Inverse folding.
DNA sequence: TTGACTTATCGTCATTTGTACACTATATTT
DNA sequence: AAATATAGTGTACAAATGACGATAAGTCAA
């Protein structure tokens, strides 16, 4: 790819990276998109991490996030929001992490502490979803099952979830990016319960939906379920506020 | 000062800076704390900016923010919250800014784009308030009167105000850092009106105060005002939630 | 001393919003 | 036809919100 060839000649900024937290919802649970580290043989290495990388010296932060996500997962045109920078003194002190970095970027001098700017995107997760690029083996991992990751990526994910919750409280429409185009009231309720970490009364939740002008009921219903079929709703962005 | 001497031997990270947005309220309006650039003779230079500077390679971001604020204003123990990173491609491309930076830090190579992590703190502003250090001429400037500043500092201030508003909507107790220990309902209302950019009904606002358990009425009243004296209130942190 | 003026404080009423709670409806499977 | 699994609905009370008018407590000037 032309873009990749050009990038070889760009200077890497060894002090700043971006990390992308993609949170997905499949109707059941929240997941996060993780990739594998490349070029590391030692099995002892913790080789799962967020899609992220060092940026180039002359590269816009937002653009860097999009580029890195595309390079590692093949995903394009993903709307990413910056939510926090991570710059603890010891965040890149683990030899596993520093060694990997130095090899990957062919760095001459040992890596200093790297400040990472974290980005968030909410995605619908389709079970049969394929990634355009499998080079780094991107895959969705349920957030509740995420173990230790490289660097401080576990903490970054926790902060992302906190951010989602706060932002949803301010403006719930933000969450509809996680739902499929057609969704049932039950799916929506499940999502809200996961995000707010509490359960909602079914009847009151229906009332709540009824007074959201941007959630419109469709004529269509579920098919092939072994019980009463639920009505589908859709999110109409144009009816927000 | 010992700290300063030691700092001379630390390595500067030429790619990452911190900027501190201190927002103050004096009972009338919101102000922001600005400092003067040092060591620049050319009068054409736009020499007012936020207190901020490059960090050291091995320095925690949060610590860097506190250190820089202390070095530029003398203020200590200020609670700073990180709210956003700024990393536009061209944010350090203005020759005025780059020249100043290169001289200040005695940099050998020209500065690349610098990613800046912005921090926020809310302060009560006392008209007779003195700064422990006047080296960089720190002073409060009403936000509505802020003109063009160095770098993208104007934009950083705008983002800070947006952040304050969002965060206050989530949790209004956050705003009490802006009010003096004793304050009147009118002062509090004025502040809320500035932050939310709309006016509130005086009577309903009193009701709103009455049902904030953390705002407690004092016996004390205003003195020397040419009309009925207003009651003082105080904020009791322990009664939040 | 009095009345004009200014700002503080309190009260009412209508409306909206939040919350607790139990039964009927519809589709599939056996 | 019965079992079962989930969808969908209404009512009553409490609490919060918002629009508005009336009264209280000071200063100031005549």
């Amino acid at each position: 790819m032309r873009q990749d060839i050009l990038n070889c000649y760009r200077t890497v900024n060894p002090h700043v990276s971006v990390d992308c937290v993609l949170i997905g919802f499949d109707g059941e649970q929240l997941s996060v998109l993780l990739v594998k580290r490349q070029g590391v043989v030692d099995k002892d290495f913790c080789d799962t991490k967020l899609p992220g990388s060092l940026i180039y010296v002359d590269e816009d932060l937002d653009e860097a996030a999009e580029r890195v996500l595309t390079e590692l997962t093949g995903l394009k045109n993903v709307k990413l929001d910056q939510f926090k920078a991570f710059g603890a003194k010891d965040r890149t002190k683990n030899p596993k992490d520093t060694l990997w970095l130095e090899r990957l970027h062919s760095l001459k001098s040992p890596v200093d502490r790297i400040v990472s700017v974290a980005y968030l995107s909410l995605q619908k997760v389709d079970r049969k979803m394929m990634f355009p690029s499998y080079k780094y083996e991107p895959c969705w991992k349920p957030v509740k099952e995420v173990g230790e990751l490289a660097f401080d990526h576990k903490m970054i994910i926790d902060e992302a979830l906190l951010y989602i919750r706060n932002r949803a409280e301010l403006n719930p429409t933000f969450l509809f990016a996680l739902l499929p185009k057609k969704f049932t009231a039950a799916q929506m309720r499940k999502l809200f319960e996961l995000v707010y970490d509490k359960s909602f009364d079914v009847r009151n939740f229906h009332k709540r939906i009824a007074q959201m002008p941007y959630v419109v009921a469709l004529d269509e219903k579920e098919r092939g379920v072994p019980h009463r079929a639920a009505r589908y709703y859709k999110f109409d962005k144009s009816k927000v506020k």
